């Protein structure tokens, strides 16, 4: 604090003004005429940049924090000092509100010990705009990754004073952009500022106001659409394609095995991209997991079909009955997408009461071909329906 001199013999008016204004000024005393009065501090957050670290659940806010209030201990008559109405002083020389970031990820806040040059007006108005780089806690919800969006909040209020001593409110809308530098990974969809007043059981006669700045961020998903979404579609089509292939050919088992291997590779790749935190499994992981299960079933179906095709054992009655029921039904014939070459083994003809009767008995190989074709068609339809359900669940 500046000490009052015996006389003001400085050569410049500004020095005289400073000595006059800060004579016996105490920066630890609230700037009010009466101790029962409230200091009204208006704030405005000027955004410069936002960086979101989903692995550490942390949002870094780069901004300027505009604060203004009246200090009734710093008044002067401008006509006595060559009409000087504005003075610029160090923030260390002034009383400042003890604002803190309640949602900070650390015990240190840049608002507690900020330094800047403040503007002081002759009417007692003080304006300080310190730079604010603050890490605030923000839990990542990766359920819809890579098309995820996140809502993060920064809450600011007085650390030791109640609302009856320091009241915090907004200037204009409370938040805006100032030479905003867009993040390459995150798009800022919207911002908002709200004021809240709380009471606690310890102090029922006091109020504790705070301001909340809310940021809605959305991930730029273009690169991920090429690296994880397109492969998911390709692997899905490969799995469905295997049901259309002849189970007797080795290419079907090779493609299905390759399909399974690619699923494992993609799961490992996505696992490397995603953080290990969070209590919700991303839908894309669920899609690849369920797709891997379907591909495994397709592999078993292909192995079973190949073994049955080369089998010399006669087809069981239950399997033959199922094949006959489906092949003799119009709807059943519509779901069979593979041509079935039914070769008769014997043909028995006879005459009965002037009528002609002909009975065809299918060979064992033809019966197995029909059963395998029906099996592949049914599994194809089931797999397709499951994929449709997975895709619908993935759409926001």
TrEMBL record:
GO terms for molecular function: extracellular ligand-gated monoatomic ion channel activity; transmembrane signaling receptor activity. Pfam families: Neur_chan_LBD (PF02931). Gene3D superfamilies: Neurotransmitter-gated ion-channel ligand-binding domain, Neurotransmitter-gated ion-channel transmembrane domain. Keywords: Membrane, Receptor, Transmembrane, Transmembrane helix. The chain crosses the membrane at residues 222-241, 282-305, 377-395. Residues 16-220 form the Neurotransmitter-gated ion-channel ligand-binding domain. Coiled coil: none annotated. One of its GO terms (cellular component) is membrane. It is a multi-pass membrane protein. Its main location: membrane. The keyword Membrane applies. InterPro entries: Neur_chan_lig-bd, Neur_chan_lig-bd_sf, Neur_channel, Neuro-gated_channel_TM_sf, Neuro_actylchol_rec. It is found in: Membrane. This is Nicotinic acetylcholine receptor alpha 10 subunit. It comes from Blattella germanica.
């Amino acid at each position: 604090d500046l000490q009052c001199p015996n006389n003001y013999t400085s050569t410049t008016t500004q020095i005289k003004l400073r000595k006059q204004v800060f004579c016996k000024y105490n920066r630890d005393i609230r700037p009010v005429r009466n101790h029962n009065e409230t200091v009204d501090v208006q704030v405005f957050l000027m955004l410069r940049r936002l960086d979101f670290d989903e692995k550490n659940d942390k949002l870094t806010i780069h901004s300027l924090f505009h604060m203004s209030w009246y200090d009734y201990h710093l008044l002067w008559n401008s006509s006595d000092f060559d009409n000087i109405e504005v003075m610029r002083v160090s923030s260390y020389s002034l009383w400042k509100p003890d604002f803190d970031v309640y949602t900070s990820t650390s015990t240190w806040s840049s608002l507690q010990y900020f330094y800047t040059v403040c503007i002081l007006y002759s009417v007692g108005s003080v304006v300080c705009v310190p730079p604010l780089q603050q890490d605030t806690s923000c839990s990542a919800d990766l359920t819809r990754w890579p098309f995820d969006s996140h809502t993060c909040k920064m809450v600011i209020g007085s650390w030791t004073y109640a609302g009856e001593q320091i009241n915090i409110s907004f200037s204009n809308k409370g938040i805006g952009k100032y030479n905003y530098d867009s993040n390459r990974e995150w798009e800022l969809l919207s911002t908002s500022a709200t004021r809240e007043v709380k009471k606690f059981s310890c102090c029922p006669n006091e109020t504790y106001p705070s301001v909340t700045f809310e940021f809605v961020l959305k991930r730029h998903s273009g690169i991920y659409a090429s690296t994880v979404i397109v492969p998911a579609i390709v692997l899905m089509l490969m799995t469905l394609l295997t049901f259309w292939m002849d189970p007797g050919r080795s290419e079907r088992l090779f493609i299905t095995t390759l399909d399974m291997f690619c699923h494992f590779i993609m799961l490992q790749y996505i696992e490397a991209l995603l953080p290990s935190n969070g209590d919700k499994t991303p839908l894309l992981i669920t899609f690849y997991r369920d797709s891997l299960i379907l591909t495994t079933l397709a592999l078993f179906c292909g192995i079973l079909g190949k073994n049955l095709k080369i089998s010399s054992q006669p087809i069981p009655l239950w399997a033959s009955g199922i094949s006959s029921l489906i092949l003799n039904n119009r709807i059943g014939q519509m779901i069979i997408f593979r041509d079935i070459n039914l070769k008769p083994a014997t043909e028995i003809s006879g005459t009965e009461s002037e009528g002609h009767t002909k009975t065809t008995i299918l060979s064992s190989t033809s019966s197995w071909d029909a059963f395998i074709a029906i099996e592949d068609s049914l599994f194809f339809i089931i797999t397709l329906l499951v994929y449709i359900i997975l895709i619908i669940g993935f759409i926001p």
